[in-house]
Amino acid sequence: MRDDPPRGPRPISGWALPLVLVSIVLGGWWFYDLQAAQVDAVNADNSIETELELTRLRVESLRNMLAVGAGVGGLAALVLGFRRQQHNEYDATQQRITELRIKAVEQLGSDKPTVRIGGLHNLERLGEQHEELRQIVLDEICAYLRLPYAPPKRDKGNGRESRGFEPVGPPPAEDRAAEMEGTVRMLAQEILQRHLNPKFGKGQYWKHRRIHLSGAYLDRINFSNCRLERALFAGATFAGKTRFVQTTFTRSPSFNGATFEGEAWFNSAIFNERAYFADTTFLKQVRFGAAMFIDYAEFTGTRFCGFTSFDWAQFERVADFKASFLSGASAHRMSVRLLRYWTPDHPPSGKPPTDIMDAFEAGGVSIGLEPLLEDDVFLLETDVGEGWKVEPLPEDPDWGRLVRTDAQPED
């Protein structure tokens, strides 16, 4: 959708000024003619005194007509002057806004993190003061987050930076720069989180048409309770714990090709239109508990590498899991909970509804078989619910496919 420019004072139509001038002339002439008719009506005799008095009255009528015309003309001049002042003030305001925006964008391009932080604050202030600029401000912030970024390497054990056998001392300059850039990016994320959450109040929430974060690197982003009009996260990298709890996606969101390096929570999220998660990778646990998919949900080629839960998820239309992978690649035991899938046509019950399970079976979902050694016995830690089992693939015993264990009801 094309952005609408800020609306200023509407210009006066080209035919308005001639119309006003003609109206003044005709109105003045009508007023003079009315006065003259009243003067002629009192002409009782033809004496010289009467003629002089009538002449004086006609002159006064003409003077009154000119005074009325001058008054109307003066009023028109005042209106034109007021409109000129409005346009001048509008132009001055737009010039100031443009200068502030250019300055803020220039600050974002600075090599000093403190200057970049100031640029983000200036952009936020512009959006708070000028509602018509909020989409532009959001676009600028999203564009900044889409810039290439290499986070400092961290040790997976304690979350600290991994420096190997470096001597004790100040961190390398590149690591320090990456840390400072991470601080700036966290502020940019906080601005988005603050102004996309309706629960913060009507004055804080910014209406928008899109949130374009495709290919962005997002660290511990929290869009819980937010209302996102058109969320584009294709190819994005989500580091740390990602939260979309009770988030409302009013238009089709795209997570195609995105990578979730940490936990991903979509509990009670609402997808009003199609939801795209094709070729998305969840490296750790992901939860779609009680999520509502009102339209088509695409999970083709998606890789679930940790604990995966769709408990009480509601699919009102097709859920496509073709060629998805459910693997136990994480260090902890992996469990795929499919027992409590349900749709409006199949309420929750002890037996998984066939249509959702059929979506997995027909889509050829690959289930990772991670055997765990317990008391010298290998156990399969993949729970797919009653009435189903995972049958290892002949060509790759580490993977399996869903197979029914109960008889199919005849139509």
From TrEMBL:
SUPFAM superfamilies: Pentapeptide repeat-like (SSF141571). Residues 153-175, 390-411 are annotated as: Disordered. Gene3D superfamilies: E3 ubiquitin-protein ligase SopA (2.160.20.80). The chain crosses the membrane at residues 12-32, 62-82. Coiled coil: none annotated. Residues 153-164 have a biased composition (Basic and acidic residues). Keywords: Membrane, Transmembrane, Transmembrane helix. It comes from the Bacteria. This is Pentapeptide repeat-containing protein. It comes from Glycomyces buryatensis.
